[in-house]
Amino acid sequence: MLRLKAFRPTSDKIVKIQLHPTHPWMVTADDSDRVSVWNWEHRQVVYELKAGGVDERRLVGAKLEKLAEGETESKGKPTEAIRGGSVKQVNFYDDDVRFWQLWHNRSAAAEAPTAVHTSSLNSPAPSTKGRHFLVICCLNKAIFLDLVTMRSRDVPKQELDNKSLLCMEFLYRTGVGDGPLVAFGASDGVIRVLSMMTWKLVRRYTGGHKGSISCLMSFMAASGEALLVSGASDGLLIIWSADHGQDSRELVPKLSLKAHDGGVVAVELSRVMGGAPQLITIGADKTLAIWDTVSFKELRRIKPVPKLACHSVASWCHPRAPNLDILTCVKDSHIWAIEHPTYSALTRPLCELTSVIPPHALAPNKKLRVYCMVAHALQPHLVATGTNIGVIICEFDSRSLPPVAPLPTPSDSREHSAIFVIERELKLLNFQLNNSANPSLGNSSSLSETGRPKGDFFEPLPVKQGKKHISTPVPHDSYSVLSVSSSGKYLAIVWPDIPYFSVYKVSDWSIVDSGSARLLAWDTCRDRFAILESALPPRIPIVPKGSSSRRAKEAAAAQQAAAAAAAASTASVQVRIVLDDGTSNILMRSVGARNEPVIGLHGGALLGVAYRTSRRVSPIAATAISSIQSMPLSGYGSSGLSSFTTYDDGFSSHRTPTEAAPQNFQLYSWETFQPVGGLLPQPEWTAWDQTVEYCAFAYQQYIVISSLRPQYRYLGDVAIRYATSAVWNRRQLFVATPTTIEIVFVDAGVAQIDIETRKMKEEQKTKEAQARAVAEHGELALITVEGPQSDKEERIALRPPMLQVVRLASFQHAPSVPPFLSLPKQSRVDSDDSWMATEERKTGEVAVGGGGVSVAVTRFPMEQKRPVGPLVVVGVRDGVLWLIDRYMCAHALSLSHPGIRCRCLAAYGDAVSAVKWASRLGREHHDDLAQFMLGMGYATEALHLPGISKRLEFDLAMKSNDLKRALHCLLTMSNSRDIGNDGTTGLGLNDILNLSDKKPDKLDKKQDIVEGVQGIVKFAKEFLDLIDAADATAQSEIAREALKRLAAAGSVKGALEGHELRGLALRLANHGELTRLSGLVNNLVTLGLGREAAFAGAVLGDNALMEKAWQDTGMLAEAVLHAHAHGRPTLKNLVQAWNQVLQREIEPTPSQKTDAAAAFLASLEEPKLTSLADAGKKPAIEILPPGMMSLNAPISIQKKPASAAQNSQQPPGKPLLALEAPPTTAAAPESATATHSLNPHLHQLVIHFHQSLPQIPRQLLQHLHLSQNQVKPLQMMQQLLPLHQQVMEIKMLTVKLLKQRLLPILHHLDPPITSSRGFRD
Q: Residue 2 has what pLDDT?
């Protein structure tokens, strides 16, 4: 429950501290007057300066800024050069601080029964123009530093009547033109107010104090009047009126009270549930006083810690400690808490900081001392303290929720209700929207003073609420957890600190069941629950302060941890059911057969049980656990455990981020009490859909979302950190975190298991219908008459799961500089040197739809204001999201912005209404909404959105099987409506070039054709997908229209890729477009794409066309192999043509020169030819496929029987696959496999042999002939050696044979070749 959030060690004492309400910023000042701004979330220093003396960096920066602006050096001393003196107070100021200060004051005043209810709190006008100020009040000057631009303004005390500054406070009620006002308390007892717009003194509060002012605070009375309270060293507490006009320059006190002897140290405002706000003051007389703000009478005075004076006080309201409402600190190591005066007003140590900090942070002989403290204004679970060793930020059980549970709303009622516990009594909270509020119409379109439509701010919806007494007492007033059964008939309350539980019947508030239990979980389907029964562990008394050593404290802590563990080990999980007559019966006395102690119960469609994992506990961890479990938050019990906090919370603070979570969470069936699935990491909480379709398991850094039907399936996780609770509303998960409210839109998509389950259900329905028919009419009912049936089959496409997160509310203020506002150039004038000049507003036009509803121009609305503190999410009722805070006040968040409303309607299942609401959303955001609806499974409805792009419209049309619309979109995107018609059937590159006439109409036509072809090429994949979808649904006309365009683009050289051309050929053949296919082959041959042309010819079933495609494009090797494999009569002609091509390739060029090569001739030993006549008798070289006879010999071919593929359309078989592969590697093996006569290695040998031939001069080839005896070694070698070695061996053998044949020839040349160069040539 207690853990260290952040720790920053320092060498000096931290004496001043303040937290920013919305950003993770903290400003501190130490006793050496050094001010530091620290980001406690990222552990980074934002800014540091020496405020007490002269900060040289700021001084140099100010001089450079003046030089850059062209200002001359001033005669006087710059304000940055003035020593600041002792730092008295530090604070932040921006629009967030201003808003939440006003909200806190108004909400505290509204609790009073006599409060004047004004209009709902609106966002105040932006006062700092998006800047974030750090304000430092020093003894001699005030420093205003802009953390955005790092520009600063120093206001010396000379401008404030030359009086020392001791404290400050920001005023939220300002006059016209004054801008932000800050009040300074001075040493002469006068309060001076400075305008941050003009940097001038605007008014004084005089005549009150006779001593120096030590503290200031502004608040609002129950009457609605703005007041300022001041405390001084004279012990007086004076109330001033902060409602003033521009003409009020001197103000006198409204009321003066004698508060303390010796001076007032600090003052704080406390919000009281159901009563007027109270003032809390601490003084130098070591007392704390509580004052009523209506009569200003003293209610109570106590001494929190005897013999020690308090130096900090904070109002606190945490659901884990319902009886504690004031925090204070003295110079020791504790944070002290004071009980509410209704109980005893006793002071208890909330926590001991020594057990929280890292062990190495505190020296062995050094004692921890607290010098200042502050509680977070919006997150009460965060408390920051300044000590003598650094800054400590503690977190107190951020998962604890207010003790309230919503009840189901009757269908005929608009009033909602919830049950809460307060001061040992059950009360009923009734709430509903005010009659004047209509959330379905949105907000008005009038402009605010910032020039932005007020509707974008989403002002809080007016809520009408009231509290009623039920007159039903409860046995305890400690921390409690409330939950309601699935039917809403029973309410369960658990007091985990006692431990005790009670189940009440809502109709008459009678007790149905009660007993000893620490945890309770309901079933979401029936009125049954599980409890964790346990005996109360023996409570070990807390060691009093200073009465024992640290070792004794650790021993006592370890002893208590052991006692708590022993008590937990005896706990058992029982399941009980509440019957209709209101009696409770035990279904199962012990769930699960595991021996580990149970530390958590989670209800839902399945019962989740978390077990303690066995881990070794160190003494330090035992001390921390003991400190957690012994926190006397309510005065009862010592375990400090609830359904939202487990025993192992002490370990979680010591676990490293990289350490894997233990698998200690098991799900059980409520029916059989048997385990379901394996062990999982323990979630912090679980949320189950009422329809048992989805569930969410929350962990510290993310939320895991799963689908439950037809079987458990993981959908994904969303990175929402530190979530505290969530509620399902169909496919919407509303999540609350300590700082935000998020919506997660969920859809499980369509998986294979869904299709199989659907088919099984249809088959089961068919069988049931047949069984009923047989039962009614006998066996004759099974006789059916088959009629004409359409083959159109419904296509069920798989769809991935979708998770989308939208932030609905947060603490941060809306941006104060809208996009259509321009900031003028900042300049300094002698009379008014303000650098925060007034903005020049340029208001844009606002489009107004029907009924006066402002048309949104943003995708999502600006985030609404999240209510302060921990919240219970009630759910969506009346079209708004309801929340209940710690003070039992209901809040409504609007869901009427079109960007959110459309998504909520689509997730709820009403896609038609979502499309209607989309008319109020900017059309530029329709694509995003259509993508969302597509993920939700509403592709058909999303097509009706008017603003979607053509590309997305095509995808939606394909998903919804509207192929006609998809074709129109594709033609529009590709600009190809005029391509592929009858006039452009034979479109080719020459046709486009022939249009280069100078006539304008032909130039335009040429441009259109070029653009159309480019568009088709760009969307070639989409065209192919459309053709396939049309074929699958028997829409042949659409497929033909797409084929026309694609075929036209395929006839242009280089337009389509090889695989696209092959796909086009297959689809043309499938549709019987033989004319276009033949034309495609001819065009491909013309373009030189032999491989694609042959593939098209193969699809066409024309072997002659295939060979012609290869022959005309120079791919004779493929043609020869194909003719040889299929026994074609054209084999001899193809081989002759192939040899002729090779002979032409190796012809010598005229530039070649022949020289002698005597050095090489001497090395040849083979017999020489005697004359050229003998050499001329040798026949010319022949290159033949292996196994083929010589060209001079007669060729006898055994024709194969004609196959069916030659008579009809040839399907793409093995030859087609061979044609797709490169011709030098895969074509020959496939052909060899088909004919059982060709060897792939032989073909590879022939290819490499051909590659060596171009090195031989043509005049030598006619005299070169390899005998059969010389070829045989080549054939034997290719069979014995691996393929990668054949190339080198063949080349070496070829060179040797050439040498033997060429030697006798070279001697008879005229002139003879005798040089080596000539031989090489």
A: 82
C-beta of residue 723 within 8 angstroms of C-beta of residue 398: no
Crossing angle of helices 1058-1070 and 1020-1032, in 10° steps, is 30
Q: Which residues contact 1060 (CB under 8 A, 6 or more apart)?
A: 1020, 1021, 1024, 1050
Per-residue pLDDT, 126: 53
What is the chain's alpha carbon radius of gyration, rounded to the nearest angstrom?
A: 45
Asked if residue 694 lies in contact with residue 748, where contact means CB atoms within 8 angstroms, the answer is: yes
What is the DSSP secondary structure assignment for residue 79, as one 8-state letter? G
Q: CA-CA distance, 921 to 916, in Å (whole number)? A: 10
Minimal CA–CA distance to 315: which of 380, 239, 382? 380
Q: What amino acid occupies position 329?
A: C
Of residues 742, 888, 861, 732, the one with CA closest to residue 802: 732
Distance separating alpha carbons of residues 201 and 156, to the nearest angstrom:
12
Q: Give the full edge-to-edge strand order of the sheet including 14-19.
A: 14-19, 25-30, 34-39, 44-50
Which residues is 169 bridged to in the sheet?
183
Rounded Cα–Cα distance for residues 814 and 817 (Å):
9
Q: Which residues are within 8 A (CB) of 1000 and not within 5 positions of it... i.e. 6 or more apart?
A: none
CA distance to 385, 475, 502, 521, 526, per residue, from 510 (Å): 46, 14, 10, 20, 20
pLDDT one-digit tens code per residue, 807-820: 999 998 654 333 32
> What gap in Å lies between CA 468 and CA 931, rounded to an integer?
47
**How many secondary structure helices (H) and strands (E) does the chain include?**
32, 59
pTM > 0.70: yes or no: yes
What are the DSSP calls for 774-791, one per residue?
Answer: HHHH-GGGG---------
Residue 443 · residue 849 · CB < 8 Å? no
pLDDT(655) > 70: no
Contacts of residue 1195, defined as CB under 8 A and 6 or more positions apart, other chains included, come to: 1131, 1132, 1189
Token readout for 268 is 């704080």
pLDDT at 565 over 70: no
| Mean pLDDT value of segment 1023-1029 | 91
Amino acid at 68: A
Q: 653: closest CA among 361, 382, 397, 377?
A: 397
